Amino acid sequence: MNKTIFSIMVSLMFLLGACQESVSGDEIQESNGKSMIIESSDKVPNDIVARLQAYNDSLYSSAATSSSINGTSSFRDKLKKWLDISVADFIGRCEGTCYGLTIGGIAGPEGMAIGAAVLGPLVGACRSYQAANSYASIPVKITFNNSIPAYIKMKEDITDYSPYYPDKIDLQLPPDKLDLLIEGAQHNLLLDNITKNTFSSTTAEEAYAKGILSEEEYLVLSDSRTPAILFRLVYSNTSDDSYDFGETSNAIIKLYKEAIQELSNDYIDVESISNRYVSEIYSSSELEETQKDNIVSSIGVMASSVEYWKVFDAEHDIE
Q1: Of 86, 116, 130, nearest to 273 (Cα)?
Q2: pTM score, two decimals?
Q3: Which DSSP symbol is given to 142?
Q4: How many CB atoms are closer than 10 A to CB 78?
Q5: Of 4, 86, 153, 266, whose CB is crowded by the most CB atoms within 10 A?
Q6: Which of 162, 177, 183 is nearest to 118 (CA)?
Q7: What is the pLDDT of residues 241-264, one digit of tens each?
Q8: Is 285 within 8 Å of 20 (Cβ atoms)?
C-alpha cells in the first residue's frame, strides 16, 4: 500500500508541476468591466503570474483614485470579514482538492478526479462554516460525522445542479467547462444542509449499495485518512495554505485571493476579477489542463460562496 501511495504522489507531482511557455496579450481589464489597452506589448509581462500581478496593480491604481472602488476605511473593515469567509471557501476547495487527488488516486485517474470533486467542496464548506462561526456563533457544530451525512443528503436530493449555479455573478467559462460550476453549487448545498441540520440517515456504505454514491465517492468518503484530513484542515490553527498545485498555480491562487480580498466591493468586481483570471488561465500554455480546471473550479466555489453569504447584498447587515 505504501508503494502504491508513493507512486500516486510521484505521478501527482509530475502532473501538477509541469509547465510550458506562456502567451501574451495587450489588454488589462479593470474591475468596472472596461478594458485598458496597453500601448506597447513590451509593457505586458510574458508569463501569466507577472501579467496577473500587473492586472492587480492596475486595480490598486484605480482604487487609489476612485472612492466607488476604494470605499471608506470603515466600510472596507466591515466588508473584509465577509470576504474572508468566502476566501476561506476558496482556499478550502484548493486544500480539499489536493488531498482528494491523493486519496482518489487509489481508484486510478478517474478516482483522482472524483476524489478532488468530493473533498474540494466538502473541505471548502467546512472551512467556510468555521470562518463564519468565528464572527457569529452558529448553533450546529460541524464535524466529520455530520459533514458526510450532509453530502449524502445532497446526493439523495439533487440530480441537476445547474439551478444552483451563481445567479448574480456570470462566470465566462468555455462551453466544455461549464460543469466546473457544479462544485460551487455543491458547496452551497452542503453549507445549507449543515447549517440547517439537514442530514441523511443513510450510511456511506448504504448509499453506495443504493447507487447514491459512486464507487470512487464511496472510497474517498470511507477512506481512513479522510476524517484526519478534514479535522486537520478545518480545525487547525495554522494560517498556512495546505495546497500545492505547482509553483505557477500556487502564485495565481494567491494573486486571486488578494484581488478578491482587497479590490472587490460588489458582485460586479468579483465577476470582473474572476473572469479576467479565468480568461488568463485558459489562454495560458504554462499550465496543464488539470491545473487550469482546479483553479477555475475553486474560483467557481468562491463565486458561489459570495452569493451564499450575501456578502454584497444591500440588506446584508455588515457589522
Answers
A1: 86
A2: 0.78
A3: P
A4: 14
A5: 86
A6: 183
A7: 667 778 999 999 999 999 999 999
A8: yes
